[in-house]
Amino acid sequence: MTAAVAEELAHQPAAAAAIAAALASPSHAYLFTGPAGSGKRDAARRFAAELLAAGAADPASARDRALQDPSPHPDLEWLEPVGARHQVDDIRDRVVSRVNHRPYEGERRVFVIAAAESMGPESQNALLKTLEEPADAVTLILVADELAAILPTVRSRCQEVGFVAPPPEVAAAMLGAGEDGVVAVRLAGGDINRARYLLTDEGRELRAMAENLARATIADRLGEAPWAPIVEFAAAEGERASDEFVERARQAGEEFGDADTREGKRRVKDASDDAKRVARRERTRIIDLALALVCAWWRDVAVYGESNGDVEGLLLASDREELIAADAAGLDPIAARRAAELAMQARSRLRVNVTEELAFEAMCFRAAYLFGRGRQGGRG
Hints:
Elements: H1 3-8, H2 13-24, E1 29-33, H3 40-53, H4 59-67, E2 76-79, H5 88-96, E3 109-113, H6 121-132, E4 138-144, H7 152-155, E5 159-162, H8 168-175, H9 178-187, H10 192-198, H11 201-218, H12 228-255, H13 262-307, H14 321-328, H15 333-350, H16 356-375
Parallel strand pairs: 1-4, 1-5, 2-3, 3-4
């Protein structure tokens, strides 16, 4: 294992040991699993790069190309879900039908299925024969947040590499952001990548919009449709992510001089198709994060009311205590708890591709009803 990989996995000793053993004697399939933002996706890319560098004529070049996103390395296939789900045709066309192809360069081909929990039963079953009868010199890496969503028949054919979420203080130190980082990590549910985003200008803007929606719902100011700016912001972020993805693909093709080869042209086409998915995925990610922030606000309001203001170390948004106290004044904390549950339900509905505006509107009006009941002292 290279020093860069070891340093990146310093806070994941069990995963680091498993990956070191895997590099010494690669198997045909791995399942990287653990909470979102625990670093397993980056580790999977590092692992794939090391596998492709081993045995390559130019290991440094092979490693560098594999680390690109999107990658121009012809022996690396990286699959992301289409919107909320992986499509079975993608699994068949980009994995099953290609695993028996000989490596273009080195001694191995690597297939990575990110967000593997987004594969439905049909997609996972399409992989079974490939997992049962692995091709020579092929490694499959599945990356999943939710282990329970992976079929037992698939899990049993993969070597599991487990990741854990670092404590908020450790994650904040990794971000180098002090107390702001601690708050961001708590609001992100321990997801370092989301916490990093919340510390950007765009992340702060999204947080402000989500908090405005949460507070407007409590105050029954829904006539202004406070979810509309979030939906528009998410669409813009999706387009920005798509444009950046296409530009990275173009630069990588030029940098490594393979844009005009047959494989390079296929890669360009795949990148163009993937760019649409990138936009959709990023839009969904932003909406989901906004809903998580709304949920965190209502949760904090409930905590403030339940603790009668003694909230030392209890609030997720500890930097907003005065505003949370104002929203909690005279409000039944049970109403806030139930509103937070509505936000969680709205997040779940995103996975089945419901309309974002409708999900927001339904959540807010139901929550406003709860808050209205809570103001009257009712228990609903």
